[in-house]
Amino acid sequence: MKKFSWPLLLLLFVAGLLAGCDKDDDELNETITPVTNLLAPAANTFVRLDPPSNAAVTFEWGQARAADGTVVQYEVLFDQENGDFSKPLYSTTSGTNGLETKLVLSHGDLNRIANLAGIKSSAQGKLKWTVNASKGLTVEPATESRVMTLERPAGFATAPAKLYITGSGTEGGTNLSQAVPFKSVSSGVFEIYTRLSAGEVKLIDQTTGTPTSYYIDGVKLLEGTQGTSPTTTPKIYRLRVDFNNAAATVTEIESIGLWIAAENKVKTTIPYVGKGLWKIENTPIEFFQESWGRDERYKFLFTEKNAAGVSSKVYYGSTNSDNQRATANTPLPYFYLVAGPDSRYDYSYKFQTEADKKSVDITVKMQPDGPYTHQVVVR
Questions:
Q1: Residue 205: CB partners within 8 Å, gap ≥ 6?
Q2: How far is Cα 54 from Cα 59, in angstroms, rounded to an integer?
Q3: Nearest to 270 by CA among 260, 261, 278
Q4: How far is CA 290 from each of CA 139, 141, 327, rounded to the nearest angstrom?
Q5: Is 10 helix (H, G, I), strand (E, B) or coil?
Q6: CB of 221 within 8 A of CB of 243?
């Protein structure tokens, strides 16, 4: 009997493996066909962008095919009208991680892409799009592209995550580390109660390495560093800016008064102490004697003046039309301040029992770190 050769067996086994790998490589085929038909939106479509509406545009195209019958992935590319997509302005995979033959982009997304294309706010411009199909390392550009016209709104393509006010005419001065923050009241909308004096006033976004500056020009919010104070003497203002439509509102806060419902008048004016805070200390409180008992209801009267110089009165009170008397354990939301109707008794707060014929400290907080609110401390 012949002896079995282990070295020979090992050699045959390795040769078989290599032959199998060669066979697999021969059978591997990553060939795909390109997308040949873009379906939507139609060529030369016009879209007037309205980001706050949450409207969207759906991009659709026909399928590409893989030679081995497996799945193909898609990437949508955007470029300027004369671009060749070699360095697209923006690209993203389609739905379901690139497997769907459609992509839905909101007007907000398209507004940002239009901004990348150099289309200015409140202006029209053209954008070109196409689709790449891919499998593995194989990428096939579509055989066509389409151009669409976009009209951007007056607002900015991207609003800051946080906004600050700085400059020689502000409470924080020119040191950026002392810039005073705005309150974010909704998407792209910011508000601040602050004192302004003569000098430079600008708004800054510090979320990137280099701060982006904005300024208020009348009722417009503009990008740049040209901002100056609306006043030559120190005054208190509410500034409200909306990046969605590049709008601004400047309102002077002439006074804030403690308004007593039963007396139907302001009992005392609360002085401004800085950075959105009004405070008065050791002010006497005495509930009003009615035939049925002693009335303890109060709220706050803001006297405001708009940019045209017209004064108005706005009551700030409770979110509830009627309230129980406050106690030392009353939850904080009880004291939240919201603008309300011109109603003598409704939406008032009630001093706690211990405040009657005593002195109190009252603080009105129109600050960015939480809901607008107030605090009453009985001495």
A1: 160, 161, 162, 163, 164, 211, 212, 214
A2: 16
A3: 278
A4: 84, 83, 22
A5: helix
A6: yes
Task: Output the CA torsion sign for 116, 121, 127, 133.
Answer: positive
Question: What distances in angstroms separate CA 317 from CA 11, 49, 110, 152, 283, one per listed residue?
Answer: 91, 38, 41, 39, 19
In this structure, the strands spanning 272-274 and 265-269 are unpaired
The three-class DSSP label of residue 367 is coil
Cis peptide before 331 (omega within 30 of 0): no
Could you tell me the residue ranges of all domains in the chain?
Answer: 38-151, 164-245, 253-378
Q: Is the peptide bond before 41 cis (omega within 30 degrees of 0)?
A: yes
Reported as half-sphere exposure (CB side, CA atoms, 13 A), residue 125 has a value of 22
- Cα atoms found within 13 Å of the Cα of residue 246, Cβ hemisphere only: 18
Digit-by-digit pLDDT tens for the chain (379 residues) are 445 455 555 555 555 555 555 444 445 677 899 999 999 999 999 999 988 787 999 999 999 999 888 899 999 999 999 999 999 999 999 988 899 999 999 998 999 999 999 998 889 999 999 999 999 889 999 999 999 999 998 888 888 999 999 999 999 999 999 999 999 998 889 999 999 999 999 999 987 777 899 999 999 999 889 999 999 999 999 999 998 888 999 999 999 999 999 999 999 999 999 999 999 999 999 999 999 989 999 999 999 999 999 999 999 999 999 999 999 999 999 999 999 989 999 999 999 999 999 999 999 999 999 999 999 999 9
The dihedral sign for the CA sequence 279, 285, 289, 293 = positive
- The tokens for 149 are 């016209």
The alpha carbons of the chain give a radius of gyration, in whole angstroms, of 33
CATH superfamily, region 38-151: Immunoglobulins (2.60.40.10)
Main-chain dihedrals φ then ψ at residue 19, nearest 5 degrees: -65, -40
Geometric angle at alpha carbon 224, from 220 and 227, rounded to 5°: 65
How is 118-135 classified by DSSP, letter by letter? TPPTT-EEEEEEEEEEEE
